[in-house]
Amino acid sequence: DTGVSQDPRHKITKRGQNVTFRCDPISEHNRLYWYRQTLGQGPEFLTYFQNEAQLEKSRLLSDRFSAERPKGSFSTLEIQRTEQGDSAMYLCASSFPTGANYGYTFGSGTRLTVV
Amino acid sequence: AQKITQTQPGMFVQEKEAVTLDCTYDTSDQSYGLFWYKQPSSGEMIFLIYQGSYDEQNATEGRYSLNFQKARKSANLVISASQLGDSAMYFCAMRVTGSQGNLIFGKGTKLSVKP
């Protein structure tokens, strides 16, 4: 297992289109997080899964955003009717639930550009 | 409100010298964790070092050390013997107690190492 994988690395889409990103976490990790990072800012929490259950959602996650983690393995993040303000890096991270530093491992991110 | 503040948007350091990146945090919780991540231009977030609020010793990981001053609510990162490969964005983050492990990030500091 080489780490957290995200696909695609880059996505350019027209305003109003739907996009879907995929995250494959480290197989032993049962916690999975999505973050959004805009230019010049640190990552901001979007949502969190423990196994297949989505346990927390940020107020940043508008109705146009939906995330799933079927079978507690990979996760998808879909953005419907994209807006220019959705342009950002979307980062996925996974971790064990215990341990002093929770062992967060981040993926390389998907950079979304809405034109 | 819980918050991370990084007041240095950019820093320069000469190769082989030490550099300190500042981080202050705000929380009313007694139990919390502090993290530093490195983000190269490729985008992935690389874990560097962790400090728990109850840890009595400052954390160290190779060339990285964390200067933890609890009373001042500061958690500065010290990089010794800087290398050209250390040029990157550096983010300080805090794990929020009771939030299922989500991290709150600062805005980051861009470190440039000069040859």
How would you explain this protein's 3D organization?
The complex is a heterodimer of chains A (115) and B (115). In chain A, strand 7 and strand 8 (75-79) form a beta hairpin. Chain A has strands at residues 5-7, 10-13, 19-24, 31-37, 44-50, 53-57, 65-68, 75-79, 88-95, 105-106, 110-114. Chain A is built from no helices and 11 strands. The model of chain A has no long low-confidence stretch (mean pLDDT 91). Chain A is globular. In chain A, strands 2, 4, 5, 6, 9, 10 and 11 form a 7-stranded mixed beta sheet that branches. Chain A has 115 residues and is an all-beta fold. Chain A is 0% helix and 49% strand. Chain B is mainly beta. In chain B, 0% of the residues lie in helices and 51% in strands. Chain B is built from no helices and 12 strands. In chain B, the strands form 3 sheets. In chain B, strands 2, 5, 6, 10, 11 and 12 form a 6-stranded mixed beta sheet that branches. In chain B, strands 3-9-8-7 form a 4-stranded antiparallel beta sheet, with no helix packed on it. Chain B has a two-stranded antiparallel ribbon with strand order 1-4. In chain B, a hairpin with a 7-residue loop joins strand 10 and strand 11 (103-105). The relative contact order of chain B is 0.33. The mean pLDDT of chain B is 93. The chains are: A mainly beta (115), B mainly beta (115). Chain A binds chain B through residues 31, 33, 35, 40-45, 48, 50, 55-56, 89, 91, 93, 95, 97, 100-102, 104-109, 111, and chain B through 4, 33, 35, 37, 42-47, 50, 52, 91, 93, 95, 99-108.
